[in-house]
Amino acid sequence: MEIFDRVSESISAEGWLALPNFVEPETIAALREECRQLAATGKFRRAAVGNNANHRIQPDIRSDEILWLDAAQGPEARQHCLARFEQLRLALNRRLQLGLFEFECHYARFAPGTFYRKHFDRFRGDARRIVSSVLYLNESWEPGDGGELRIYSGEGENEDHVDVQPASGTLVLFLSERFAHEVLPAQRERLSLTGWFRARS
């Protein structure tokens, strides 16, 4: 099955999927190096929660750092990766008629001990985020390294969930409105390119 057919089928049937090897290992390695260099030069900022008037730093909920990316700029590896996401956007629109207009994204860095508590990606009163995505840049990730993405499939304290390891090259996609999720505490540096396919406002 062609990769975009598989993605579309999984989103339609289950609302989410984890897809290994979305882009080539050499591209992932280049993105990882860029992410680390940008972090080392102080480009990242503490991540916030909420939007507009509710936008605030709240480290008891979220303790990672991020750097928003300009899709029109950046080195070759990043441009190649974003072109792949553009192909995915067009394929999802063609197969599922989701009305995806654009892709916004940032690098995310979780230092050892950091986390992001359970939340939804779609902001209250803002329905533009349709599909959430996380592309992992981590090399040789082991189960004891933590940092799993926990995706919840129900409601309540003991609801069902699945944990996805942030392994290099794995892409996770899920419907932004449907799935609450969290990032469990990382035991080592955890890097990703995180983004959202958005509809028009």
Order of SSEs: HEHEEHEEEEEEEE
Main sheet: strands, sense, barrel: 7 strands, antiparallel
Strand order of the largest sheet: 1-9-6-11-4-3-2
| Unreliable residue runs | none
Structural class: alpha+beta
Work out the helicity level: 10-25%
Walk me through what this model shows.
The chain has helices at residues 3-13, 25-40, 76-96, and strands spanning 16-19, 45-46, 65-68, 102-110, 116-119, 129-136, 149-152, 161-164, 171-175, 181-183, 190-198. By secondary structure, it is α+β, with helices and mostly antiparallel strands. Strands 1-9-6-11-4-3-2 form a seven-stranded antiparallel sheet. A four-stranded antiparallel sheet has the order 5-10-7-8, with no helix packed on it. Helix 1 (3-13) packs across helix 3 and helix 2 (25-40) packs across helix 3 (76-96). It contains three helices and eleven strands; from the N terminus they run H-E-H-E-E-H-E-E-E-E-E-E-E-E.
